[in-house]
Design a protein that fits this description.
Layout: E1 6-7, E2 12-14, E3 27-31, E4 35-40, E5 43-48, E6 56-65, E7 72-80, E8 90-94, E9 101-105, E10 112-117, H1 118-125, E11 133-141, E12 150-159
Parallel strand pairs: 1-6
Antiparallel strand pairs: 2-12, 3-6, 4-5, 5-12, 6-11, 7-10, 7-12, 8-9, 8-11
């Protein structure tokens, strides 16, 4: 399946108000065991379908064309639905879809807006921007919302001009 990769000639915005965007909008999803990824009240929700204590991992990956870009920022909002913190909960980036580098971890009480300087994160990880750069939103736990789970909304990937370049 070929995914459309949003080119940043314009900002990429996703508010999940129309449900889960699919491959044509650059998104792919995966869940293990009883994990589920759904759209609830205009938010991307990750949790389990069954409250049986079996752990599941949920991943929503955005593919975006960042080749030849700079000054790229990622922002959005995140809600913790009583989810305990686990390694990998949060956001990771990859230039090849094989090796992932965490850029934001969300602790048990973390909810609210987030912002990631993708230039700094990619440079720190030694990643080049590619035509298929990937941003992964991830959750790992073992119960359904509201006992466990995480939600994401208002995902924005944009080129931000440095202060010296703004008019």
């Amino acid at each position: 399946t070929t995914l459309f990769r949003s080119n940043l000639s314009q900002s990429y915005v996703q508010d999940f108000s129309e449900g889960l965007p699919g491959g044509p909008q650059g998104w792919e999803y995966s869940s293990t065991n009883e994990g589920q990824i759904t759209s609830v009240s205009g938010r991307l929700r990750m949790d389990d379908t069954i409250d049986n204590g079996v752990y599941s991992q949920n991943e929503a990956i955005l593919h975006v064309d960042l080749a030849r870009q700079s000054n790229v920022q990622l922002s959005g909002s995140h809600w913790n639905l009583s989810d305990e913190a686990h390694p990998g909960d949060g956001i990771a980036i990859s230039s090849n879809g094989v090796t992932w580098h965490p850029v934001a971890a969300f602790k048990e009480s973390a909810s609210g807006p987030f912002q990631v300087d993708l230039d700094a994160a990619a440079a720190s990880a030694g990643l080049p921007y590619t035509t298929d750069f990937r941003i992964k939103f991830q959750q790992y736990d073992n119960y359904s919302a509201p006992e466990d789970g995480r939600e994401w909304d208002d995902i924005l990937v944009e080129v931000v001009l440095p202060l010296s370049g703004r008019r």
